[in-house]
Specification:
FAD/NAD(P)-binding domain, D-Amino Acid Oxidase, Chain A, domain 2, eight-stranded mixed β-sheet, 9 helices, about 25% helix, binds flavin-adenine dinucleotide, FAD, FAD-dep_OxRdtase, oxidoreductase, flavin adenine dinucleotide binding
Length: about 375
């Protein structure tokens, strides 16, 4: 069978792209090494934060708002609750770029944002003990996405629209010739008019087969759940959070229906080869000591470690994404390097990828994510 489009990697970005392409009538084949959603890449662990006023740069705000609109649409179409509007509390020193970007984004885009000094934060959320000098920026309209359920929802809809999803099948070879794409797995070969490479931490290896060497750095990350006082940390009263402290950047989630408080460290992590087994949670001493120290300092009414997991970030040098067409092939779109903050955007990235394949352009401004910035 000949396809209009093949998507390599049906994870966060790829599954969303598969949904939009099949909805627009494209004969789409999605291929994944595992059975998405799964726990081998970058999209597991129950929850992801979605923020709109964006610390990483104002250019992300229109994308975040469009992504939120598309998540709301997905909830309506499927009848599933995928988003919890817990609000997000961003904490840091007032003068940092992260906090200043959040404040200026909220002004430019008229986003609701409450700026609180440390004592106001501690008063509003008695589960937090924030020292003086830090401030909190609380965005009440943002919150939490149930990440695996989002991917499942796009998968169901893509299949309903006629997409073929080939699971537990790794793509080994790919080539582009005469405006046709050929990809091979262990025992099969497929052809299509166009290709999307959205293979997360594995994208670098695949793209090198199309003569494209991107500066992608896969990194091992850890996160864990802790028993916590439900009175203080339950999701109806306590927000998702991101803390830029002098001892590292941490993020986390309130306890959802007794899950415990989930926390992870955003900065740091060891570079890994995604083709090899990653060390499990707890194999490095700092896996637990970092998180416990953070909770001890800022959320001391938490208790025992329940369990932890490992996951992968795919970092670019500037930690901005790569969303672009291949410089030599206008029928190959690429989405990678989401640098630990991409999930919230996967709905809109799926739409952008599908637009790039269908019309060669997107309504969204994706110039900041172009490949030629690395030249
Ligand atoms: C611990 C952690 C916490 C995070 N927290 C947040 C957050 O709060 N908010 C936020 O917005 N983002 C967050 N992120 C980042 C976000 O989850 C990622 O940016 C996003 O999931 C990346 O999506 P992806 O599609 O690139 O990768 P993935 O979702 O991993 O998808 C890639 C897919 O490609 C497949 N694949 C790879 N190679 C091949 C091959 N050769 N053949 C076939 N298939 C292949 C893989 O099996 C996989 O399914 C977090 C990430 C981690 C790890």
């Amino acid at each position: 069978m000949h396809y209009d489009v093949i998507v390599i990697g049906a994870g966060s970005m790829g599954m969303a792209a598969g949904y939009f392409l099949s909805k627009y009538g494209k004969r789409t084949l999605l291929i994944d090494s595992f059975n998405p959603p799964h726990n081998k890449g970058s999209h597991h662990g129950d929850t992801r934060i979605i923020r709109h006023a964006y610390g990483e740069g104002e250019e992300y705000v229109p994308l975040a708002l469009k992504a939120q609109e598309l998540w709301n649409d997905l909830e309506k179409v499927t009848g599933k609750q995928l988003f919890l509007q817990t609000g997000v509390l961003n904490v840091g020193y007032e003068k940092t770029d992260f906090i200043q970007n959040i404040i200026s984004s909220s002004k430019t885009h008229l986003l609701p944002l409450k700026i609180l000094d440390s004592s106001a934060v501690n008063k509003q959320w008695p589960g937090i003990t924030l020292p003086e000098n830090y401030i909190g920026c609380f965005e009440p309209t943002s919150g939490i996405l149930k990440c695996e359920e989002c991917i499942e929802a796009y998968r169901e809809l893509a299949e309903q629209h006629g997409a073929t999803i080939l699971t537990n099948t790794k793509v080994k070879e790919l080539s582009v010739h005469d405006e046709r794409v050929t990809i091979s797995t262990e025992d099969q070969t497929f052809n299509a008019d166009a290709l999307i490479v959205s293979a997360g931490a594995w994208s670098g290896t695949l793209l090198s087969k199309l003569d494209l060497n991107l500066p992608l750095n896969p990194v091992r990350k850890t996160f864990a759940w802790f028993d916590a006082s439900e009175d203080l940390y339950n999701y109806r009263d306590f927000p998702a959070f991101s803390f830029e402290t002098s001892h590292g950047i941490y993020y986390g989630f309130p306890s959802i229906d007794g899950s415990g408080l989930k926390v992870g460290r955003h900065d740091g992590g060891e570079t890994i080869n995604p083709e090899e087994a990653i060390r499990g949670f707890g194999e490095l001493e700092e896996d637990t000591t970092d998180l416990k120290q953070f909770l001890h300092n800022y959320m001391p009414f938490t208790h025992q470690l329940k369990y932890g997991k490992t996951c992968m970030y795919t970092l670019t040098p500037d930690e901005d994404f790569i969303i672009d067409l291949h410089p030599n092939y206008s029928n190959v779109a690429i989405a990678s390097g989401f640098s630990g903050h991409g999930f919230k955007f996967s709905s809109v990235v799926g739409q952008i990828l599908s637009d790039l394949i269908i019309s060669g352009k997107s309504e969204q401004n994706i110039t900041p994510f172009s490949i030629n910035r690395f030249k």
